[in-house]
Amino acid sequence: MINPLAQELNDALKGTTPGELLSDVGTRLYFPKGIIAQSAEAKKLGKTANGTIGTTVVEGKPIMLPSIKKYVPDLTSSELVGYAPTAGNPDLRAMWKESIIRKNPLLKDKKFSLPVVVPGLTAGISYLADLFLDETKPLVAADPSWDNYVLIAEARRNAKFVQFKMFKDGKFNIEGLKETMQKQAESGSVRILLNFPQNPSGYSPTSGEAKQLVSIVKEIAEKGAKVMVWCDDAYFGLNYEDNIEKQSLFAYLCDLHENVLAAKIDGPTKEDFAWGFRTGFITFGCKGLSDAQYEALVKKLMAAIRSSVSCAATPSQSLILKAASDGKLEEEKAEFRKILERRYKLVRDFVSTHESKFIKPLPFNSGYFMSFDTMSIDAEKLRQKLLNDRGIGTISIDVKTLRVAFSSLDEEKINIVYQAIYDIADELGK
Ligand SMILES: Cc1ncc(COP(=O)(O)O)c(C=O)c1O
């Protein structure tokens, strides 16, 4: 039985690409006209008194324990212990939209949704999975991929996780991606997750490759299939080579074709070096969608949030918003990015001056990581030996992929770590 409010949203989205792409859960979700909606109304109109919300209010403000206040003296009680709206602090959402446009100038005159605050990028991906994946709606992603994608798609949503080989002959395998997408499109729709800079390879497409990706999506959409592209931009901006595409694929996809729905997943987690804040954003773009249709789509997302965590944490949202208005933020971030770039260069120097018969670096040019194709060596054995013999921690992503997070290696450790990887690979390979 579909709730009448869900039916209203479904009707608003009828005939649109997001409407056609919805999953079983996506179709059922609705944002209740209950506590949250009534409380928002009372906030506007309840001038005499507002007895709607479950917080302890004194003279119009939530009260706050001094033992909490003393650690964050500059935040008001509303900024620290008050509830945030389901879709997030409206000022933060507006600020993030502006910042997306600043980082992606192509978006300047394009129409796309206001970003919705989610409790971290993982939650954002999980919500997209709620809305758009189910037993009959697979998710396409690269091989190798971040291991959380398969967990979310398969274990949570019982959706097939279809992978394309990310690299072939030492290059980004765009042909493989195209073939996989075309095959999926035969069912009438494709959902693909693209993550650049990528985890675990550390690869980002060049401008030429990004153009090719966009034209593949367009070609499939023009032939009639609905295409949803999830742009996981967790590591946005961490580019260490000049030929990398500087803008998010979202900037190209959000108005590409009526049959294309683009979703941008991003946030301060890595961009602002605030991993534990658990704040992320989901932004939608689809050519031709009206304001009312965007609103219905955002309501579906709000329903996913309301029915799981209710809303994201307030203190992190307040702190990010305050930091954004601090004139020094960009300068400070640039300094931090330089730390990562120096580490990248050291890793690059090492792997370009060392040869191994047994391991080969996958293409990398950005982000936090690089990975080795461990060829005939078992990556897990390599990981264990590195850990047990040399006390060096790495990650075996699968049997043939060893990931190294150079983001967490101090400069003076880089040669030691990489020499150990090559030495142990030699030992295991012989
Ligand atoms: C590709 C990718 N997406 C998303 C995330 C998750 O970000 P968050 O910590 O905000 O959930 C990560 C974190 O490791 C990641 O590597």
UniProtKB/TrEMBL annotation:
Keyword line: Aminotransferase, Pyridoxal phosphate, Transferase
Aminotransferase class I/classII large domain segment(s): 64-421
GO molecular function, one term: pyridoxal phosphate binding
Pfam family, any one: Aminotran_1_2
Entry cofactors: pyridoxal 5'-phosphate
Domain of life: Bacteria
Entry-linked InterPro entries: Aminotransferase_I/II_large, AspAT/PAT-like, PyrdxlP-dep_Trfase, PyrdxlP-dep_Trfase_major, PyrdxlP-dep_Trfase_small
GO-annotated biological processes: amino acid metabolic process
Family under the similarity heading: Belongs to the class-I pyridoxal-phosphate-dependent aminotransferase family.
PANTHER family recorded: ASPARTATE AMINOTRANSFERASE
Name of this protein: Aminotransferase class I and II
